[in-house]
Each structure stands twice: as structure tokens, then as C-alpha cells.
Amino acid sequence: MKKTTKILVPIDFSACAENALAYAYRLANKIDATVEVLHVSTFENPPLDYPSFVAVATDEKVSMARGKMNKLIENVRKNVSPWLDSFPDIETTIEVGISDTKILKVALRDKVDFIIMGTQGENTVLDRFLGSTTADVLKFAECPVLIIPEKAKFREEIVIGYATDFAAADPFEIWKASKLLQSFQSKVIAVHLNNKKQYLEDEIAEMETFFKENAPAIDISFHCIFTEDMVEDLNTFIDNHNIATMVMFKPKRTFFERLFHKSFTKKMALHTEVPLLVLNEK
Fold first, then answer.
1. Per-residue pLDDT band at 44 (split at 50, 70, 90)
2. Angle at 154 between CA 98 and CA 176, to 5 degrees
3. Which residue in 33, 78, 96, 166 could disulfide with 28, CB within 3.0 to 4.6 Å?
4. Is the pTM of this model over 0.70?
């Protein structure tokens, strides 16, 4: 029996979360997936440390969240129904705790295939210092994460962008992204951002040969651009090539590597204007 694809959508009742859920509905309809909607309730001011008070406060918070979730789901359903052949199966989950921790636990527990999350961008000093929940999930998720900017629109036919460093894993990750999005009949534009002003002709030729011989069904081209500001230049490349979804492969790093490494993926998640699909190394 074919396994049904499952999408997890964490929501916080914001406009960007609503847009992410609408995107998830339309994507689920396109790839025949189910959607699990998750809200994590947190206590900004923890209740008094008495079991009875904690239980009552938790029940009240969950009940309020349930009402908001049902209302948001219905609103999104009405807004996207004109574009759906059929409405995807929906599951709802409410957890209490730390947002990123609960999202990651639910993703593992419920064996989701990928996570869709909304992002509003980098707005405050606190965001820059601590990072958003979305960025924290990106660090540790064991499944792909699709980041949906607040104003991103769903497209029926898309061009996939792939940020390549000519790593050994790139051909497989490009194939994986193409398979995930194959319902869109899309082509792939791979781009290497080079700050050393070296045109990697041999690496490009090797990749082109690999796909021609091993995956001829994938319509792919390779580009190398010289850059001083990787985020700005990649966003310009996205605009110039009408890319609708950008894909990035995120290799695992040790604690000390994460401590001293400035994450380009995180920067793109906060500044992209198109959906960003992050494929994490397992």
C-alpha cells in the first residue's frame, strides 16, 4: 500500500501562520497529502506552582486555543476552497510547552514527511539574538522544512531553485526535491554563490554530465554567480529567473560548528520572499 504523505503545519494564529496553512492545503491537494495542524500553547507568566492551579490554567489555555484553531481552519478552508479539487484530510493537535521542542517531538512521533511553517522575517533585536521558532526548528528537524513567507503566493507551476556548493550530496537532494514537487512539472535552476570570483567550469560540467546520464527526466541548468552579499544576490537571482521555490541542503554540524558558524540558511529563511525548502542531512 502506498504511504500517504503527511504535512505538519505549526500555527500561532498570526497572519503568516494562516498563509502557511493555506499554502499547505493547496500543496496537500496537489500531492494527495494529509495535513496535521499543530498549536503549541506556552505560558508567558507560569501559573502558581500548585497542581490544581496549573491544571485549571492549562485546560483554559487549551480550550481557548482549540476555539481559535477551529476558527482559523474554517477561515482558511473558505478562502482556498475555490482552488481545491477536494479538501485534504485534516488532523488537529494542541500541545503545551516550548514551541520548537514540541514541534520537533510531534514531527517525530507522528512520522510527518515535512513541516510547513510561516515566517515574518527578522523584526527585532531579540529575533536576531535568539532566533525565531522557525530558525530553531530548521536547526534540528529530521525531515524537510518548507518556510512560507507571509506574502508568498501558491503557484500551480513552479521553477525550483537549488543553492549548490557542488557537494557530494547535491545530486540526491536535487532528485529528492524534484520528486517532492513533481506534481508541478517544474524545472530546476541550480546556482552556486561564489565569493572568490572563481567560475567553477569543471564542477558545473561534471554535474551536467551526471544528470544527463543518470536523471535525464530532470530539466536542470547550472549557474555560478559572484557575490559579496549572498542573501541579497541570491534574492536577486530568484527574481531574475522567476524562481517560485528555493531549495537548500543543510548539512549536520557539531555543537561547536553551530556555535561559530553563521547560518546562511537561517538568513535566507528570515529574508526570502518565496517559499524556502530546507533539506536537512540525516
1. low
2. 75
3. 33
4. yes
